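Render this sequence as a predicted structure.
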Amino acid sequence: MSLTDRAQATAKNIEGKVQEAVGDLTGDPKAQAEGKEKQAEARVRHTIENVKEEVKKMID
C-alpha cells in the first residue's frame, strides 16, 4: 500500500468518525449516516490496497 493511499484512507476514516460524532452530539441523523459512509469507504480503500499488496508479494 502506498503511503499516500494509506494516508488518504486514514484521513477519510477520521473525517467520518468526526462527522458521525458531530451528528451524535447535534442529533443529526444525516451527519451520522454520512460519517458512517465515509468510514465504510475508508475500510474499502484499505482492503483494496491490502489486496494489491498481497498480489504484489505473490508476483515478486
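Summary. The chain has a mean pLDDT of 93. The helical segments are 3-26, 29-59.
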